């Protein structure tokens, strides 16, 4: 079997791949600049980062999987929250509103062929009270997460509705990933 590399250190992406019985032979996080370009919209940004991450670690003769998750409120790209204040800012923005989670997945095959998809999921969050935001911040779950939350954790209690891919919101759309791998000859 040809070697498969995951260009991400995300434990969630490893867990999601395990759901479809895919275990990477190697974890090689891509070290790229993730700064959005001037006037770059959320969709283009997510797609670009997925491709750049895959290309940064790909080597001939292997399969490479990469992806990126972007939480967007209209054309505004919410950050990967690194502080409690960033979590608070993100949650305040999405409270009582719908937003979109755009997750790209890019697979490169042994000969350098590339296939990519974008999962776009609409997420509706209930109106959050100050106490709910404070409690979520206290949990620490939002740190390091796009948009300041993890749908698979405590924040799931605040999600009124999703339309799209639950696994895409988690960080890797499983259906799309399986289709791309199969399309490039990787047998699940």
Summed up, the helix count is 6
First-last Cα distance:
11 Å
How many domain units? Answer: 1
> Main β-sheet, in a few words?
7 strands, mixed
Class inferred from helices and paired strands:
alpha/beta
C-alpha Rg, in Å?
17 Å
Indicate the proportion of strand residues: 25-35%
Using DSSP, what is the number of strands?
A: 7
Q: Approximately how much helix is present in the residues?
A: 25-40%
- The fold-level CATH name is Maf protein
Order of helices and strands: EHEHEEHEEHEHH
Q: Write down the CATH class.
A: Alpha Beta
Overall outline: elongated
What are the low-pLDDT stretches, counting only 5+ consecutive residues below 50?
none
Q: Kindly state the mean pLDDT as a whole number? A: 97
- CATH architecture verdict: Alpha-Beta Complex
Strand-helix topology:
Layout: E1 4-6, H1 11-19, E2 26-27, H2 42-57, E3 63-73, E4 76-78, H3 84-94, E5 98-108, E6 114-125, H4 130-139, E7 159-163, H5 166-170, H6 174-183
Parallel strand pairs: 1-2, 1-3
Antiparallel strand pairs: 3-4, 3-5, 5-6, 6-7
Helix pairs in contact: 3-4
Key phrases:
188 residues; Maf protein; seven-stranded mixed β-sheet; 7 strands; 25% strand; elongated
How would you describe this protein?
The structure is a single chain. By secondary structure, this protein is an alpha/beta fold. It is built from six helices and seven strands; from the N terminus they run E-H-E-H-E-E-H-E-E-H-E-H-H. It has helices at residues 11-19, 42-57, 84-94, 130-139, 166-170, 174-183, and strands at 4-6, 26-27, 63-73, 76-78, 98-108, 114-125, 159-163. Strands 1, 2, 3, 4, 5, 6 and 7 form a seven-stranded mixed β-sheet that branches. A hairpin with a 5-residue loop joins strand 5 and strand 6 (114-125). The chain is elongated and about 50 Å long. The model has no long low-confidence stretch (mean pLDDT 97).
């Amino acid at each position: 079997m040809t070697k498969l590399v995951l260009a991400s250190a995300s434990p969630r992406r490893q867990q999601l791949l395990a759901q479809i019985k895919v275990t990477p032979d190697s974890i090689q996080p891509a070290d790229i600049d993730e700064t959005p370009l001037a006037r770059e919209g959320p969709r283009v940004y997510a797609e670009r980062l997925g491709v750049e991450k895959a290309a940064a670690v790909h080597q001939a003769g292997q399969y490479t999987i990469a992806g990126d998750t972007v939480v967007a409120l209209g054309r505004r790209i919410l950050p990967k929250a690194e502080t409690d204040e960033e979590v608070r800012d993100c949650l305040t923005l999405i409270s009582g509103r719908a937003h979109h989670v755009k997750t790209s997945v890019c697979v490169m095959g042994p000969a350098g062929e590339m296939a990519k998809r974008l999962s776009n999921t609409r997420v509706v969050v209930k109106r959050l009270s100050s106490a709910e935001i404070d409690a979520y911040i206290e949990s620490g779950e939002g740190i390091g997460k796009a948009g300041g939350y993890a749908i698979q954790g405590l924040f799931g209690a605040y999600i009124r509705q999703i339309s799209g891919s639950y696994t895409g919101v988690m960080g890797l759309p499983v259906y799309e990933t399986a289709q791309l791998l199969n399309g490039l000859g990787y047998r699940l």
